[in-house]
UniProtKB/TrEMBL annotation:
Residues 9-114 form the DUF7674 domain. This is DUF7674 domain-containing protein. It holds the Pfam family DUF7674. InterPro entries: DUF7674.
């Protein structure tokens, strides 16, 4: 089980481009800051249509949710998934592409977030 103190290293191991960004704040003690930084990076990759990198980020998020303790799962649920659902989906092809990248572990959370955020508009 991955705990909140292991999250920065786990992300860095899989997404080396985030190493410097994650060290700009004491992320080891702030899992929500770490996941926020990670979600911003993932969102940027999706908006720029860097689907290979975005897919890798989404897989990491899915694994963190699957293997994380309750604190880690909470950070993915409260920070990563809402940030992911704020990303404009564009045309139908982009939407299908993004949906196909989201791992099963967080897909339900993503759809639930999409439905609740669209219901509040």
């Amino acid at each position: 089980m991955i705990n909140q103190y292991e999250v920065p290293a786990y992300i860095e191991d899989h997404i080396p481009a985030l190493k410097k960004a994650l060290h700009q704040f004491p992320a080891i003690f702030h899992v929500y800051d770490t996941v926020g930084c990670f979600s911003e990076y993932t969102g940027r990759q999706l908006r720029e249509q860097n689907y290979a990198i975005a897919g890798k980020c989404l897989q990491v998020a899915g694994r963190l949710y699957e293997k994380g303790n309750e604190v880690v799962k909470g950070a993915i649920t409260r920070v990563f998934v809402p940030a992911l659902s704020q990303i404009p989906l564009g045309d139908a092809l982009s939407r299908i592409r993004i949906y196909s990248l989201i791992p099963d572990a967080i897909y339900g959370l993503y759809i639930q977030q999409q439905l609740s955020s669209h219901g509040n508009r």
